[in-house]
Structure formats: structure tokens, C-alpha cells
């Protein structure tokens, strides 16, 4: 089953079995956003609390779905918790850029590509993805990219101050 | 853990007179290999594969006979028109219709339901209608194609929708049927569920509907490809189905309706072909069935569908049905023997009332629920193609208490080796997600 291990890496399976930051937060102060993937019925409910200094002070998620959507959501919450809103946005951009690269013969190659593409010159270098790189294998499975980006799109919507609550669809990966 | 053998012969598989190996050899795509594995195509309920004869008929049509239909007086155009209308006659014969005038070619079964909802439905079910029966009775197991067009009518005209419930085995509960039919103008029911496999008692429902003053629309998308169909025996007023699920091409479907109903219905889409006359101050609709076929129709697709009908008739639909009934019996026995409690299979256990679809949820070796999408991904690495998701039946998914299921579905080219490959691949999924 060569290739499957590249998609379902152990850290992904671990987040699937033991999701981090699972639960709900009071709204307000948190913002609540729902994400749906109509293709496979994935559902994410995301609670994001942004403090007065524009940091993601707290984040929680609930919902259910496939291994990729749920572990990506779990890893996302772990990655952005405590970061500034700007950092969370840059991380989202870097994560999506990783998945838009179709040739993932090596993860390091993908990251090298990241440095050259998609980031405006006035921004600093893209943030290190760390554990999130484990999800790079999803890039070779176009149908599953929506699963992986579902929670990230919900995060972007939650960070948008104009839309404190709402629903998002995995329409654009 | 080695898969347990189930005696296929004891279950009658292979005794139905279909030479599955010979049939499978007629379908070029089935010769494909996926990562070195034999392709195990278990998604025919979504769309079937095509035999060489269908592919060849369409190629030959384009190479020798193509012109627009019902227009030209030259030889090729006459031949194209004859081929198109001959397909209509073949479809009528295939479903036991009295003649081709009741057969309307649509884009697919979905468009056929929309056609009925927008024409007959808008005419007869609107609050302004003089009819006493204006509600629509559907079932909890309908495909979105037989739900959303009626919901759109509810939104636009305030039409009342009612839903026949199902029991825990996936059978319609009909004890309240007569009461639920009170005030109903149309009953929409699937002949065979695309998730549960349930074969519904359409005749019983249609008779009760008629007694209550309602017409019946049957969704035959999962029945017409898999079992003999006779619209008179079904007792229905409308029947819809798609070509691509019955060995034919995509892009064409069928609405069959009683001719007097079609005659009474206003046109659907407007344009060429569907008119008798057009003046700047008005237009006159065409005769049936062309009144409902605006614009250039899917001619090559009709030729392909005709070849598919010929292919199925040569095999015999009784034998197709018997083969699938035996195979689904083998699948239920094999999967239960090998995976037992880890696998929850939906739908009736009695294969006499079940079509060739097996929807299921699955737990890994350590009891973790494996999401159907992950399951389908692992199976794909073994060349096993199953559908994962809500199968365009989200209300049914909610009724079953799941967000998605995996689904294996069979057809005339499926055999016990396909079932065995599915069972084996499920062991791999079990191990992967158990973290062993």
C-alpha cells in the first residue's frame, strides 16, 4: 500500500484518534463559525476567541468527519492557539500553498517552493508549518484537499471581524 | 486474519445463466489496472460502465449518420432522425410502454422529475388550481432528485410535502398510507433505494394513490437498469430513469408518462423543436413527446442508449435481476462472516426485496469508526472502487443517524471475486486505522 502511509501519517492518525482543543467556547467572547463539506458530510464547528491585542487567545472545535478533515482541524487549533491573528492568517496561507503544490515527491521540495511562490515581497518568510507538513500528502489527492482545508477556511471566516458567526462551504480549496 | 470462504454455489451465484466473465469482457474499462491491481468496480449504482457495443454504436453514428434531427430532407438527416426515433421505440418496448409517444428524452432522471414538477406540478398543485388534491407525498428514502424539485415547488407555490417514514430495516411504513394520501395529488416514490437497496411495493402504493385521486411518479433510476420493468404492471403514471446507470451514455435520461397526462401538460423549456408554429405575437406547442424536447436533442446519446437496451435485452433482465439478487446474498453472507460486528450494513436482509447495493459503516480492529471517505481511500489503493458519502440522500442519512456511508453496488459484470476483493481490502482498512 505504498502511498497510503504518505496520506495517513501516524501524526495525522494520532490527531484523529485524540483531537486537540475539542469542545465549545462561550459566544461571546468567542466567535462561532460552521464549515461543511457537502461531498463527504464533514462538519466543523469552530470557536475562536480573539483578545484585545489581536491574539487567538482560545480556540475550540467540534463536529465530525473524515480522518483528514478532523485531524487537520485538530492540528490547526494547536498551531494557531496563542498566535496573533496576522500569524494565523499567514499560517493559513502557507498551509494552503503547501496543498496547492501537486508534486510532493519530497516535503522539503515543497517547502522550498513555498519560499518562492505566493508570498508578497513585503511579508516576512512564510511561517514554519511544523507538524502540519504531515498533511502535505493530501496534495496528491485532489478530492481530499477540501477535507484538509475545511477548518482553515472556517478559521479565516472567524478571523474576519465582519462575520462573527456564519457558515462556510468547502467550495474553494 | 484470512477471509472466510462462503460457498457461492450454495447461495446460487453462478446459477442464473449469466456468464459473468464473458459479460465483463464486453466492458473495455473493466480491463484497467489500478496500481497493478485488477479494477474492482463496485460503484455501478452511481454510474455503470459501458459495453463495447454502446461505445461502437455512438462512434459509428458520428462517423456515418450524424446530422440534426427532424429538419433535413437529405438522406443522412433522415437516417439520423430514424435512429433517434428508433431509440425512443426501443426504450418504450424495454419498459412495457404501449408506444413511443409517452417517451420523452431528457438530460437525465433528475431533469425528468423537474420537468414533471414544473409542468404537471405547477398546473395541478398550485393554490390557484381547482383540484382538491394538491399535496405531494414522498418518502424518507428518496434521492435528492426526487426531493428538491418538489421542495422548489413548495418554496414557489406553497405546495404541501409529506413523507412516508421508513422502519429500522429500511422498509417503507405503509400502515398509515391511506390517511397520508388524503388531499395528495402526486405520490413520488423510488422503485429501489440507492442507499438501502430496498425494492418498494410500487404497485400497492400506486393503486392506493389512484384510489385517493393521486397520480404516481416512480423514480426508476435504480430499478430500470437492474430488473424487468413494465409500466403497466407498476401501475404508475410517470417513470423516470437515466441512461448512464444502464450501460448507456451520460447526457440522456427518460421520462415516460401516460399519454393523456403528457397531452394535458404545458411545455417545459422553450425553443426550437418543441413548437408547431411561432409568430411574433405567440407560439403553438408541438405534439407530444417533442413538446418537451426543446433544442437539438442528445442524438448520439439516444443511439447509445438504444444499443444499451439491445445489450440488456439480449442478456435478459430477469437474468440480470437473478444474478444481482444472488450476488448481494453472497455479499451479505461474506461480509458478515468476515467482518461481523465491525460492519453495519443498512437495508433489508431479505434479498428478494433488495437490489444490488450494500451501504455500510465500518469500525477498525480497535473499534474506532472509520469514516467512509477514509475507507474508500484505502480501498482505492487495492483497486476497489466504492462510493462514500451521503449518496444524494441526506434526509435518509439523518434518519439513519449517520453523516455518510460507504456503498458497494453491483451490476451484471460484478462477481463473487469482486465481493472477495472488497472484503480483503476492508481488512487492510481495519488494520491501518487501528494503528497496528
Fill in the keyword field for this structure:
heterodimer, A: 173 residues, alpha+beta, four-stranded mixed β-sheet, 6 helices, 40% helix, globular, B: 436 residues, alpha/beta, Aspartate Aminotransferase, domain 1, Aspartate Aminotransferase, domain 2, 2 domains, seven-stranded mixed β-sheet, five-stranded antiparallel β-sheet, 38% helix, 17% strand
Please describe the biggest sheet of chain A, giving its number of strands, its sense, and whether it closes into a barrel. Answer: 4 strands, mixed
Task: Using the coordinates above, name the CATH class of the largest domain in chain B.
Answer: Alpha Beta
Number of beta strands of chain B: 18
Shape of chain B: globular
Q: Summarize model confidence as the mean pLDDT of chain B.
A: 94
Provide the helix percentage of chain A. Answer: 40-55%
Number of domains of chain B: 2
β-strand percent of chain A reads 15-25%
How are the strands of the largest sheet of chain A arranged? 3-2-1-4
Secondary structure: number of strands of chain A: 4
Could you list the spans of chain A in which at least 5 consecutive residues all have pLDDT below 50? 101-122
Instruction: Determine the number of helices of chain A (DSSP H or I, runs of at least 4 residues).
Output: 6
Following the backbone from N to C, one meets helices and strands of chain A in this order, namely: HHEEEHHHHE
Work out the radius of gyration of chain B: 23 Å
The proportion of strand residues of chain B reads 15-25%
- Determine the structural class of chain A based on helices, strands and strand pairing: alpha+beta
CATH arch. level architecture of the largest domain in chain B: 3-Layer(aba) Sandwich
Find the biggest chain interface: A-B, 21 and 22 residues
Amino acid at each position: 500500500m505504498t502511498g497510503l502511509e504518505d496520506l495517513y501519517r501516524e501524526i495525522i492518525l494520532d490527531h484523529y484518534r485524540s483531537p486537540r482543543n475539542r469542545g465549545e467556547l462561550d459566544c461571546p467572547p468567542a466567535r462561532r463559525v460552521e464549515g461543511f463539506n457537502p461531498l463527504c458530510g464533514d462538519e466543523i464547528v469552530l470557536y475562536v476567541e480573539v483578545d484585545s491585542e489581536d491574539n487567538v487567545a482560545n480556540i475550540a472545535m467540534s463536529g465530525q468527519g473524515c480522518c483528514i478533515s478532523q485531524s487537520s482541524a485538530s492540528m490547526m487549533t494547536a498551531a494557531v492557539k496563542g498566535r496573533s491573528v496576522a500569524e494565523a492568517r499567514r499560517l493559513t496561507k502557507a498551509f494552503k500553498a503547501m496543498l496547492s503544490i501537486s508534486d510532493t515527491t519530497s516535503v522539503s521540495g515543497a517547502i522550498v517552493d513555498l519560499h518562492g511562490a505566493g508570498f508578497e515581497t513585503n511579508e516576512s518568510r512564510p511561517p514554519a508549518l511544523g507538524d502540519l507538513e504531515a498533511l502535505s500528502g493530501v496534495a496528491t489527492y485532489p478530492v481530499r484537499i477540501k477535507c484538509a482545508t475545511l477548518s482553515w477556511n472556517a478559521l479565516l471566516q472567524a478571523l474576519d471581524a465582519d462575520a462573527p458567526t456564519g457558515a462556510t462551504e468547502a467550495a474553494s480549496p | 486474519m484470512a477471509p472466510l470462504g462462503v460457498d457461492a454455489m450454495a447461495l446460487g451465484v453462478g446459477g442464473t445463466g449469466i456468464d459473468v466473465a464473458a459479460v465483463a469482457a464486453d466492458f473495455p474499462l473493466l480491463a484497467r489496472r489500478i496500481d497493478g491491481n485488477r479494477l474492482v468496480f463496485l460503484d455501478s449504482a452511481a454510474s455503470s460502465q459501458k459495453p463495447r457495443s454502446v461505445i461502437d454504436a455512438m462512434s459509428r453514428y458520428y462517423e456515418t449518420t450524424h446530422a440534426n434531427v427532424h429538419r433535413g430532407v437529405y438522406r443522412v438527416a433522415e437516417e439520423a432522425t430514424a435512429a433517434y426515433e428508433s431509440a425512443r421505440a426501443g426504450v418504450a418496448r424495454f419498459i412495457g410502454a404501449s408506444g413511443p409517444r409517452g417517451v420523452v428524452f431528457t438530460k437525465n432522471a433528475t431533469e425528468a422529475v423537474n420537468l414533471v414538477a414544473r409542468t404537471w406540478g405547477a398546473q395541478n398543485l398550485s393554490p390557484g388550481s381547482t383540484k382538491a388534491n394538491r399535496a405531494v407525498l414522498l418518502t424518507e428514502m428518496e434521492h435528492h432528485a426526487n426531493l428538491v424539485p418538489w421542495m422548489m415547488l413548495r418554496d414557489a407555490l406553497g405546495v404541501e410535502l409529506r413523507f412516508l417514514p421508513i422502519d429500522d430495516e429500511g422498509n417503507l411504513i405503509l400502515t398509515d398510507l391511506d390517511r397520508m394520501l388524503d388531499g395528495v395529488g402526486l405520490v413520488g416514490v423510488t422503485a429501489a433505494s440507492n442507499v438501502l437497496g430496498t425494492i418498494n411495493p410500487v404497485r400497492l402504493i400506486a393503486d392506493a394513490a389512484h384510489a385517493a385521486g393521486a397520480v404516481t411518479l416512480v423514480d426508476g433510476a435504480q430499478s430500470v437498469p437492474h430488473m424487468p420493468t413494465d409500466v403497466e404492471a407498476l401501475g404508475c403514471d410517470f417513470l423516470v430513469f437515466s441512461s448512464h446507470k444502464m450501460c448507456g451514455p451520460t447526457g440522456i435520461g427518460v421520462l415516460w408518462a401516460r399519454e393523456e397526462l403528457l397531452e394535458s401538460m404545458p411545455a417545459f423549456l422553450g425553443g426550437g423543436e418543441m413548437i408547431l408554429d411561432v409568430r411574433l405575437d405567440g407560439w403553438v406547442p408541438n405534439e407530444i413527446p417533442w413538446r418537451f424536447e426543446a433544442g437539438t436533442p442528445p442524438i448520439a446519446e439516444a443511439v447509445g442508449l438504444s444499443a444499451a437496451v439491445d445489450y440488456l435485452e439480449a442478456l435478459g433482465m430477469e437474468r440480470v435481476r437473478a444474478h444481482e439478487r444472488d450476488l448481494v446474498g453472497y455479499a451479505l453472507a461474506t461480509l458478515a462472516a468476515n467482518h461481523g460486528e465491525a460492519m453495519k450494513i443498512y437495508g433489508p436482509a431479505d434479498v428478494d426485496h433488495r437490489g444490488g447495493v450494500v451501504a455500510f459503516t465500518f469500525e477498525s480492529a480497535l473499534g474506532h469508526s472509520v469514516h467512509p471517505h477514509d475507507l474508500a481511500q484505502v480501498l482505492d489503493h487495492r483497486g476497489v472502487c466504492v462510493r462514500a458519502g451521503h449518496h444524494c440522500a441526506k434526509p435518509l442519512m439523518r434518519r439513519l443517524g449517520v453523516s455518510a456511508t460507504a456503498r458497494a453496488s453491483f451490476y451484471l459484470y460484478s462477481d463473487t471475486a469482486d465481493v472477495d476483493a472488497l472484503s480483503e481490502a476492508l481488512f487492510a482498512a481495519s488494520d491501518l486505522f487501528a494503528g497496528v
